[in-house]
Amino acid sequence: MNFVSIIEQRRDGGVHSPEGLTFLANGAADGSIPAYQLSAWLMAAYLNPLTLDETADLTRAMAESGETLDLAGLPKPWVDKHSTGGVGDKSTLVAMPVLAACGLTMVKMSGRGLGLTGGTIDKLSSVDGLRLSLSPAEMVAQAREIGIVLTGQSTELAPADKALYELRDVTGTVTSIPLIASSILCKKLAGGAEFITFDVKCGSGGLVHCLYSAQELAYWLQEIGDRLGLKVTAKISDMSQPLGGASGNDLEVQEAQMVLYGDSLDPAQARFSEFARRLCAHTLAFALNIHEDEARGQVDAVLSDGRAAAKWEQWLTAQGAAPGRVPPKPAPVVLDLLAERDFWLVRQDAAEIGRAVLELGGGRKTKEDRIDPRVGVCVHRPVGSRFSEGEPFATIHAADEDAAARAAKSLQAAIEFSNEPVAEAPLFLSP
Ligand code: URA
Fold it and tell me: For atom 2 of ligand 1, which residue has the closest CA?
């Protein structure tokens, strides 16, 4: 097969055959199609989007470009939960142990963050000793033993996606819905789970910024998932403000632990706890085919009787961490920003807060950057809350005084106040 004719077919709005897309995926995976030709095809596919059928064929071909996990023999249902990524989104850290404690087999591959949204692997990298690159055989063995496993993206699973994603990142072709859907779903297909909950984040801090695009992405994930025999449910959630209080790697691990261990929470942390509980209940109801109220009862029970916290500890020690609760990694400088008068909080922009965390060293601007796990920004109440003069509305955790002062300046643009009461933002934008 000649790849130039596949590029021309896409350029001219033709329809690819499954064989053509398999040729593309295998050529991306083994390097036999050069990057300049793949880049040309990606731009043509950005301008002339793939149909649902073509996207399903591409997804299958990318999943089959490497190894696939065989979960046969593990207790069912096999479940994964995936977020399209957002600022302060640490819900995987709560959902995995909660759902495993409820009896589901949780198997997950997660990504590293690039840009504003932190990846789960970066958050967990702040836990000393934790091993986050497990082989497919290790993943299956751990899932069999304790019902929960999470690893970074393995080069053995869906290697075509790795090659194509790296090129999309540098060719202005990330934001194509069919390319996003196939990239996400091929890893799910290769990862072996049968039930998948997608949390499609919508707002300035997410991959998509408006409700229309979020609905379109949710629809594509569901449609392609159906065509590939996966059981997919998608919820759309608010990403106009950070999820919960903390944005920054270790700060988010600590906040997730506060929910898991039943600590007392400030209003922003309580909003995150409610979000995680609802997402878990939705996933459990979907996977067990039970009513969401019954599922919520099970979720609340494992959180209040210590089973979720015990599963968290069992999970982390199985992957190499020291036993017990993960100790915090305090930043050298902690700076509270105080309300100068009484006000209602109108806006705490997720993208701008994500950018402040990035500037503090909590994220990666290039693939080579090293992350400082200690730094980040905490907000204390959600939009719509009232503050009195002198109360802290945000706290900066920084490596030094200069970085803290710069972050304080950036946060002035990110956070807006009003003398009038303001409505709270909903957690979910879909039923
Ligand atoms: N996450 C992925 O894995 N792929 C995309 O294209 C976008 C988000």
Answer: 184
Q: pLDDT band at residue 90, thresholds of 50, 70 and 90?
A: very high
Place of tokens 């040309």: 40
What percent of the chain is modeled with pLDDT above 70? 99
Same domain? For 207 and 263 the reply is yes
Of 92, 90, 109, 89, nearest to 100 by C-alpha is 92
What is the predicted pLDDT for the residue at 94? 98
Among 57, 80, 122, 161, the one annotated catalytic: 161
Residue with the two structure tokens 């944005």: 247
* pLDDT value for 114: 59
Domain boundaries, position 226: 78-318
* Residue whose CA lies nearest to ligand 1 atom number 7: 180
What are the DSSP E strand ranges found in 228-302?
A: 231-238, 246-247
Residue 168 known to be catalytic: yes
- Is pLDDT of 74 > 70? yes
| pLDDT per residue as tens digits for the range 370-410 | 999 999 999 999 999 999 999 999 999 999 999 999 999 99
Do residues 311 and 343 both lie within one domain? no
Active site residue 39: no
Per-residue DSSP letters for 312-375?
HHHHHHHTTPPSSSPPP---SEEEEEE-SS-EEEEEE-HHHHHHHHIIIIIS-SSTTPPP-TT-
What's the whole-model pTM score?
Answer: 0.94
195 and 144 within one domain: yes
Question: What pLDDT score does 154 carry?
Answer: 76
The total domain count for the chain is: 3
Of all protein residues, the one whose alpha carbon is nearest to atom 1 of ligand 1 is 184
Last-in-domain residue among 286, 318, 350: 318
Contact 201, 89 (CB under 8 A): yes
